[in-house]
C-alpha cells in the first residue's frame, strides 16, 4: 500500500519535484509523487465547446464561469459516503490510481466547461491532485477559480473500513490549524488558489466567534487578496449563514467600514433539503456568493437510490429532464438527460444564483451532471411552464430537515 504523504494528514513540507513536472508544477505542488501514467505532464487541458452557456464572474475575480463546479471530496481518497462510491473505484484505490482517475474526471469537467474547482485539506490527496493537474495541463490562473477549505484533518490513512469509533477526519477550528493548513493549501495550489473556506462551520464549534481565527482570515483577505468563505452543514445551516452575515472586516457593526468578512458561503441545498434557501437568498442579496454542495444528496437523487421512498422524487426528476431535455438542439448530440442533471439544474435555477458542485467520481457521472447547464438555459427560456414544473418537483421531493440529516449521518463510507 502506498504510504500517504504528509499533506494527506493536513500537513505538508516542501520537497524536491520530479524532473518530468514543469517549473510551474513546483509552484503548485510539493511532493515527489510521479505523475500518473494516464495523465502525462505534457497533456493539455481539453478545450470546452464554444456554446453560449449561462456564465458569470464568480467571486468577482474576472473569470467567466458557468454555474457548474467540481468538488473533489470523492476524488482525493478511496472512501466517501456517496452511494456506490466504492463500486466506482473498485480497481483504482492506490494513490497513483486515484490521481489518474482524478485527472480523468478533471479533464472531463474542464471539457464540459467547468472552471470552478473545490478541494479541502481533509479530502485526502485532493489538493495535491488538483495542483498537479493544473500544472500538468498548463492551466492559467486567469482561466479557472480554485477554492479550498481548512478545519478538518484527514485521519483514515488511505483506509476505507475503520475500527468502531475511529473517525475518517477530525475537526479543529483553531488559529494554529488555520495557519498550518493554509500554508499547505497555498504550497499545493498557488498561484491558482483564490478562495479559502472554513470547513463545516457550526454554532457548536464557535469558530464564528473566535477572534483569533477571524483576525487571521481578515488578514488573508486584506493583505493577500484571498476570498474568504465558510461551508455549513446540518439542519441549522440557515442560522449559521445568518450569523456569518454579521461578521465584518472591521470586527464591529454597521459603521462606515461594514464590509462583510465572508465573500462566499457553501451550503447543502437540493430537491430534498431546501431549508437553507431563504438564508442563502438573504446572503446573496447582502453581496455574498453562494456555492451549493450535495445537490444530489450524496447519490440519493440519482438512479443509484433504490429506496422506495425516493422513487416518486426520482420519477418526477426524470420526467422534468425528458421534457426540457428534448426541447431543441443542445450541446450533446443524442444526449440522455437523467435525474441528476435535472436536480443540479433546479439548484442552479434558484434565486440565490449558486455555483453548484458536481461530486462526480467518474467521467460518465461528470458528463451526465454537465447536462444541467443545458437544462438550466431551457428552464430560463421555459417561463411560467418551467417554473410550474420545477415547483411540482420541489413539492414532491421536500423532506423534513431533521430527517434528511439523520439519514445522511447513517450513510456508510465505501
From TrEMBL:
InterPro entries: AKR2_Oxidoreductase, NAD(P)_OxRdtase_dom_sf, NADP_OxRdtase_dom. Pfam families: Aldo_ket_red. Residues 99-373 form the NADP-dependent oxidoreductase domain. Coiled coil: none annotated. It comes from the Eukaryota. Residues 1-29 are annotated as: Disordered. Gene3D superfamilies: NADP-dependent oxidoreductase domain (3.20.20.100). This is NADP-dependent oxidoreductase domain-containing protein. It comes from Micromonas pusilla (Picoplanktonic green alga).
Amino acid at each position: 500500500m502506498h504510504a500517504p504523504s504528509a499533506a494527506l494528514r493536513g500537513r505538508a513540507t516542501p520537497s524536491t519535484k520530479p524532473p518530468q513536472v514543469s517549473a510551474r508544477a513546483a509552484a503548485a505542488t510539493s511532493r515527489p509523487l510521479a505523475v500518473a501514467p494516464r495523465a502525462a505532464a505534457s497533456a493539455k487541458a481539453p478545450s470546452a465547446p464554444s456554446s453560449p452557456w449561462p456564465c458569470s464572474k464568480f467571486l468577482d475575480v474576472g473569470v467567466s464561469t458557468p454555474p457548474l463546479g467540481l468538488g473533489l471530496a470523492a476524488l482525493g481518497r478511496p472512501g466517501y459516503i456517496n452511494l456506490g462510491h466504492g463500486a466506482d473505484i473498485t480497481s483504482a484505490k492506490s494513490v497513483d490510481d486515484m490521481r489518474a482517475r482524478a485527472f480523468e474526471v478533471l479533464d472531463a469537467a474542464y471539457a464540459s466547461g467547468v472552471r470552478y474547482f473545490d478541494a479541502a485539506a481533509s479530502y485526502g490527496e485532493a489538493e495535491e491532485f488538483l495542483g498537479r493537474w493544473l500544472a500538468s495541463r498548463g492551466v492559467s490562473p486567469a482561466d479557472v477559480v480554485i477554492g479550498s477549505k481548512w478545519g478538518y484533518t484527514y485521519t483514515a490513512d488511505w483506509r476505507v473500513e475503520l475500527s468502531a469509533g475511529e473517525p475518517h477526519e477530525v475537526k479543529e477550528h483553531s488559529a494554529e490549524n488555520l495557519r498550518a493548513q493554509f500554508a499547505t493549501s497555498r504550497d499545493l495550489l498557488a498561484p491558482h488558489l483564490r478562495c479559502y473556506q472554513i470547513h463545516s462551520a457550526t454554532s457548536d464549534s464557535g469558530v464564528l466567534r473566535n477572534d483569533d481565527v477571524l483576525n487571521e482570515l481578515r488578514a488573508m483577505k486584506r493583505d493577500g487578496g484571498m476570498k474568504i468563505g465558510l461551508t455549513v452543514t446540518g439542519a441549522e445551516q440557515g442560522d449559521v449563514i445568518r450569523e456569518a452575515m454579521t461578521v465584518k472586516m472591521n470586527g464591529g457593526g454597521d459603521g462606515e467600514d461594514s464590509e462583510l468578512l465572508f465573500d462566499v458561503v457553501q451550503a447543502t441545498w437540493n430537491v430534498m433539503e431546501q431549508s437553507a434557501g431563504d438564508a442563502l437568498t438573504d446572503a446573496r442579496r447582502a453581496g455574498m456568493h453562494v456555492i451549493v454542495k450535495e445537490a444530489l444528496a450524496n447519490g440519493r437523487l440519482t438512479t443509484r437510490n433504490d429506496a422506495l421512498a425516493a422513487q416518486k422524487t426520482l420519477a418526477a426528476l426524470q420526467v422534468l429532464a425528458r421534457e426540457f431535455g428534448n426541447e431543441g438542439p443542445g450541446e450533446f448530440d443524442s444526449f440522455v438527460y437523467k435525474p441528476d442533471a435535472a436536480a443540479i439544474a433546479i439548484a442552479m435555477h434558484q434565486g440565490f444564483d449558486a455555483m453548484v458542485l458536481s461530486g462526480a467520481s467518474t467521467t460518465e457521472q461528470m458528463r451526465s451532471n454537465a447536462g444541467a447547464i443545458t437544462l438550466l438555459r431551457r428552464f430560463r427560456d421555459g417561463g411560467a411552464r418551467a417554473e410550474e414544473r420545477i415547483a411540482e418537483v420541489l413539492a414532491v421531493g421536500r423532506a423534513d430537515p431533521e430527517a434528511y440529516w439523520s439519514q445522511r449521518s447513517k450513510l456508510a463510507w465505501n
